[in-house]
Design brief:
It is built from 15 helices and ten strands. The chain is of the alpha/beta class. It is globular.
Length: about 475
């Protein structure tokens, strides 16, 4: 174990030195991680970002594009042959078809390299020719990122926290009854362990439908080739001080530690530790629609996720990121096109409030952060209508379930985010003043002019924050 730890540290040190040397003598590379919580639109974000960097007519907020300094953008083979390629062409085809549809969601890690030919600015503009900047885009499920919070927890701590959190959720009733009735000090029987893991996975799937965000362990929902393996066959149980050897409790404890060592740690070592920039996409509107409990859960989830970056708290991450760190992190509330533009500022303020505690606690080891409201692909148009003597600022789009055009008024987001976060923290069952509705819109048929990417909201500003300084 000691030799393995030393070897791992030496490997990371060599990789960091290699990255530094290659950045100094070869074309610079920006590694951008793209992740998001459930239903946040990662695939659409990546597809639209790539399309709009290749055809930059809708990217005035990206200064290098506005100045005309990006002379060309082209796709290249990705540097890592062991990672699946992000299926950009297929996803763009889904969005631009005669009857467009949303592409399949992220279920594994994928990667794509987009190279930009950039003309320098300032004093170097007249003496230096264009240079190539490689943008490596790494797409991965947000549930896997949440697993980072498990690294500093024991099985007993995780079990206690999880069972306490689930006590107030109707969707967890069946699993909680089974876990409480289990004699975890008895000898392990594999059928009992498998039944508990299946029941816990069923709860996680129900919780995702209910709008909750704390869906860990993440691989339970996206098991892939690990489905049915012992490393995914555990569940939280009431703590036992002196569980005997070969008991169900001791085996669950062992499998929890194996999950951290064999699933979580390799993912962060092989992917997360190599990122330069990160965007976290959040369906804040969906959580608001689900109610106060979903908003409070989202706030806690963001705090748990981001506090793991605090120096001195997470020994695993501190060792992993020696000599390297994520320099910028953008938190983006997606689906801004579901609101009239007059409410976008309020959605951004809510996103800032949701991450405020986490940023204050974590301080991100010096990373620069920002919150923003975006729509990767604009699926609606704005419309003002008169209804019952009131003037309502609406959005109009094609409904996902029926395909019919409809104007929709979601309700008025509060000017002060505390009007949402306050009731959420105090355990309110529902919003007292009004319900905040949300509709599912299908992508609108596109008719793009030459040089234009798909329509969006603030995708150019997001790109400027994430990569503008490197261009």
């Amino acid at each position: 174990m000691v030799i393995g730890t030393i070897a791992d540290k030496l490997t990371r040190s060599v990789e960091n030195v290699a990255d530094t040397v290659s950045g100094a003598f070869f074309d610079p590379v920006i590694r951008l991680g793209v992740t998001g919580l459930a239903r946040s639109g990662k695939t659409v974000f990546l597809t639209s970002l790539i399309a709009n960097l290749m055809d930059r007519g809708r990217m005035p907020g990206l200064l290098a594009a506005a100045d005309g300094r990006i002379q060309a953008a082209y796709l290249q083979p990705q540097p890592d042959d062991t990672i699946p390629r992000f299926e950009y062409e297929d996803h763009l085809g889904a969005l631009t078809a005669r009857t467009p549809h949303w592409p399949e969601s992220t279920r594994n890690v994928s990667e794509l390299r987009l190279s930009l030919k950039v003309r320098p600015s300032g004093l170097l503009a007249g003496i230096q020719g264009p240079r190539t900047v490689h943008l490596d885009l790494i797409d991965y499920p947000g549930e896997w990122l949440l697993d980072l919070a498990l690294m500093d927890k024991s099985y007993a701590e995780w079990s206690q926290e999880t069972l306490t959190r689930l006590a107030s959720r109707p969707s967890a009733t069946s699993f909680l009854a089974q876990a409480q009735a289990e004699d975890s000090t008895a000898d392990l029987e594999e059928t009992r362990a498998r039944s508990l893991a299946q029941s816990f996975t069923a709860y996680l799937e129900a919780a995702r439908k209910d709008g909750y965000s704390d869906l860990t362990p993440g691989r339970f929902l996206l098991p892939g080739e690990m489905s049915g393996s012992p490393v995914l066959t555990f569940a939280p149980l009431p703590p036992q001080d002196k569980a005997p050897r070969k008991s169900l409790w001791r085996e669950m404890d062992r499998r929890f530690e194996a999950y951290k060592a064999q699933v979580v740690q390799p993912f962060f070592r092989n992917h997360f530790a190599k990122l330069d920039r990160q965007i976290v996409l959040v369906d804040a509107l969906g959580a608001i629609h689900k109610g106060p409990a979903a908003i409070e859960d989202l706030r806690r989830t963001m705090a748990d996720l981001l506090s793991a970056f605090r120096p001195g708290r997470n020994a695993f991450l501190s060792q992993l990121l020696r000599g390297k760190r994520v320099e910028k992190i953008l938190f983006a509330a997606t689906k801004a096109d579901h609101l009239h533009h007059t409410q976008h500022r309020r959605l951004t303020a809510i996103m800032e409030a949701l991450t405020r505690d986490a940023r204050d606690r974590a301080r991100f080891a010096g990373a620069e952060t920002q919150a923003m409201s975006v729509a990767s692909l604009r699926a609606t148009v704005e419309e003002t209508i008169q209804h019952d003597g009131q003037t309502l600022d609406c959005v109009r789009g094609r409904l996902l379930d029926t395909g019919k055009e409809a104007a929709f008024y979601p309700g008025e987001l509060p000017e002060d985010p505390a009007h949402l976060l306050g009731p959420a923290r105090t355990g309110a069952g529902k919003w007292l003043d009004q319900d905040y509705q949300i509709m599912s819109f299908a992508p609108a048929p596109l008719s793009l002019s030459p040089g234009e990417g798909p329509p969006h909201i603030r995708l150019d500003r997001a790109a400027q924050f994430l990569i503008g300084d490197k261009l």
